[in-house]
Amino acid sequence: MLDIKLHDFSKPVELTQSDIPTPKKDSVVVKLEATPLLSYTRDYLQGNLPYAYPPMPFTPGTNAIGVIHEVGEGVVSLKKGQRVVVDCNWEKSEGVANPERVLIGLTGISANSQPMLEEFPNGTWREYGDFPAQVIMPIEGVDDIPSTQLVTLARFIVPFGGLRRMNLRAGETVVINGASGYFGSAAAMGALAMGANVIMLGRNAEKLQKIADSIAPNSKRVSVVGLSDDLEADVAKVRALSSNGVHKALDMIGQSNSAHSTMVALNSLNPNGQLVLMGSMLTPLPVDYNKLLLNNLEIKGNFMYTRDDYLALVDMVKAGLIDLNKVEVTSFGLDEIEQGIESAKSNPMLSNTVLKLG
């Protein structure tokens, strides 16, 4: 089979020939069909990110769509030939308070996750992959969606985990901070599908409006706010867009050097409101202790998503509530990895770069 290996941060990845893996106990081998390329792939491959990398050489790559090729000893419910999602978010199934966790093919998450990185170091940039059975989810009822489009689920599931964590309800108003980004735009689509009203925050109002027009043309349920540097003025703009106020906010800002937009989202909330943090920030968040207390506000950190979130997302796609075709897909083969990386780096708004694996 063909696969891609990272040997050294100072060298390009290599396309190589390897044997098809044999499944270990409690694992599955999947014939992989499509996997997304992340916008920061180049920085990742050059070692510029503060990640706990798998031992080199290894095959990068996170989530994927594929078909089960072979199951290992101890696997009961998964069967050869099933179409499945490969979810890189692997939490060790041990009965402890804080189980170890990794993102397969990307990074360790918990402090003692190195043994997990060594056990399954390789991700999805290959034609066949071996993975713990725990991260494999059968998907039915979506046979009409090609794998290159269906793998867009990986873009939606991250913010969807945050929307479910806040228990977003139909009719509520939610602010999406960072709504023009890779995950933020998907968050806006997910919130609309859940029946909420959406206020999209960002620096570029024109870009936000283009996304809004694409995901919900002529809808009164989605609004945009282009931010300035005036906190009070920006909060007033947000509050003016909802007669019932803002019930919840999801922060998907990426690698921000400023807390301004997050504070706009927080300060826009009604009493008893929630802010769920899922982005990344390089500066402290200047929270007003008394304001939180007096208004019964909640701030929640939410890392990734649960298995139940993933299954719920697939159900929403099957029901036609989320249209994956609104995301434009550009695909590349394994032998075009360099072009794919550059395409992912410049992904415009509602677009996805995908490696087509088989």
UniProtKB/TrEMBL annotation:
It comes from the Bacteria. Coiled coil: none annotated. GO terms for molecular function: alcohol dehydrogenase (NAD+) activity. Its EC number is 1.1.1.1. The keyword Protein biosynthesis does not apply. Residues 184-318 form the Alcohol dehydrogenase-like C-terminal domain. Pfam families: ADH_N (PF08240), ADH_zinc_N (PF00107). Keywords: Oxidoreductase. The keyword Oxidoreductase applies. Residues 25-139 form the Alcohol dehydrogenase-like N-terminal domain. Gene3D superfamilies: Medium-chain alcohol dehydrogenases, catalytic domain, NAD(P)-binding Rossmann-like Domain. This is Alcohol dehydrogenase. The lineage of its organism: Bacteria, Pseudomonadati, Pseudomonadota, Gammaproteobacteria, Vibrionales.
